[in-house]
Amino acid sequence: MLVHSGVETAPAALEPQVYIPGRKGSFQVELLAATRRQGRIAYVPKPELRALIAELTQRPVVVLQNLGLEVLPQWHFAVAIGYDAAQDQVILRSGTERRQVMGVREFLRTWALGSQWAMLALAPGELPAADDPDGYVRAVADFEAQHGPAAVLAYAAAVQRWPDHRLARLGYANALRAEGRIAAAVTEFDVLAVRDPNDAIVLNNLADGLLQLGCRDRARETIERASRAQPEPGRIRAAIEATRQEIEASPAQGGAACAPTEERP
């Protein structure tokens, strides 16, 4: 799956990352972590055959099967590489068997016993076939901790496909800010603030970005809006107060970058 995604690797190189000697096998968490370690977004599609078939039109998918019984499981990871609609069959790479053809009914039985778990590896900027912004953004957030610059590409692709998805654009703005692209981050925060003028998290982050651009007056006005939107004590309120103190301690500057950004797609 990783090789198909453009990563040069081999089973022997991956074995120490995914194989648990004491359990004589691997678990989902190791596969997810190893995928991210290789610079790929580990995305788990929805547990349904339709979602799996949609992904198979574009890429291979790791699936978890139980080839035994519910009370006596025989866990097995395979790679689904295709679906033959005419024959109603799923095509797998299974263990050392390069091409295993399994009827959909039998495949669904073994897959259901594995909770219909699947995973695919996405290069930054590559999107799943499914219309699943929530699942994709969660996958990028897990990826971002190790690969900040690449996460910018992933979030940008999400915003392009799902321009109205708040968390996709918020993740994009925060990733831009983390990479020092403050003016671009402020533009994205502005879009979100126009859509929801009472989003305290967005307003706090916007104020922080404006402060980094030297726009103290606009930053002060924005943090006041955030304070009114989040009057209750808590973590968000504490962050707002910390941003307010930084604004008050900063010198006043200004410039063209301080002008508000009008909403755009």
Question: Can you give me a brief rundown of this structure?
Answer:
The chain has helices spanning 11-18, 28-37, 49-56, 104-112, 133-144, 148-161, 166-178, 182-195, 200-212, 216-229, 235-248; strands at residues 41-43, 61-66, 75-84, 89-94, 97-103, 118-122. The chain has 265 residues and is α+β, with helices and mostly antiparallel strands.
Structure characterization notes:
- This protein has 2 domains: 11-122, Cathepsin B, Chain A (Alpha-Beta Complex), CATH 3.90.70.10; 133-258, Serine Threonine Protein Phosphatase 5, Tetratricopeptide repeat, CATH 1.25.40.
- The protein is 49% helix and 14% strand.
- With 265 residues, it is α+β, with helices and mostly antiparallel strands.
- α7 packs antiparallel against α8.
- Strands 1-6-2-3-4-5 form a 6-stranded antiparallel β-sheet, with helices on both faces.
- It has helices at 11-18, 28-37, 49-56, 104-112, 133-144, 148-161, 166-178, 182-195, 200-212, 216-229, 235-248, and strands at residues 41-43, 61-66, 75-84, 89-94, 97-103, 118-122.
Choose one word for the global shape: elongated
- Low-pLDDT stretches: none
Instruction: Kindly report the oligomeric state of this protein.
Output: single chain
Helix and strand content put the structural class at alpha+beta
Report Rg.
23 Å
The CATH architecture name of the largest domain reads Alpha Horseshoe
Distance between the termini: 34 Å
Overall pLDDT, averaged?
Answer: 92
- Order of helix and strand elements from N to C terminus: HHEHEEEEHEHHHHHHH
Main sheet characteristics? 6 strands, antiparallel
Total count of domains = 2
**Helical segment count:** 11
